# Entry
Amino acid sequence: MDLEIVVAIIGAFAIVAAAYITSRKREVETELIATKVELRFKHAALSFQMEAIDWDHLHTELRLLFTNSSIDSFIVFCAWNGFNDPLWTTAIFQFRKGENIALIHVETDADYVQMLKDIKNTGVVILKTEDLPENMLRSHYTYERVKVATIHYFDSRKLEGTSSVAVRYCSYRSTITDDLDVATLAHCKRITDFIKGAIA
# Structure
């Protein structure tokens, strides 16, 4: 083979290799930036000021609620990583009766984001699993055997150092019945008001 052709082939390979390495380096740098942003979101989202809560009082109220009603799980959530449409929600406190199926960190969908907007406007929503469309929330509720939930809004806060807004809220859920009576709903509201007062 002619030396000039060999040199040309080697040169072409070198150009392709350099282009690939440069492209891959950019991808890695982009992934690294995205990871750092994600960690900053998580840190900010989970800085919930839960330390301000009187845990003994909260524990007593939750045990009383569980004893006197069909509610058998209580979860505090923080939805984050999105200005108006949070991409994730994270369970930052859970109190459950009986079998423990821990929900930690899930990606939201359009229906879930709409539910967050609804609770921001109304303060509370009641969701029956059988009435939900086929979506992320119904899938989770079906898996955890949740029949009904009442979801209460705490607040929305801009996450420090980001353009993201964290939505903080809680869910009282029942695997026993799909109907919550007035006394149960009033007790849930009382607990919500107690937490809102502590974290304000």
Observations:
- The chain has two domains: 1-46, 50-199.
- The chain has a mean pLDDT of 80.
- The first helix runs from residue 3 to 46.
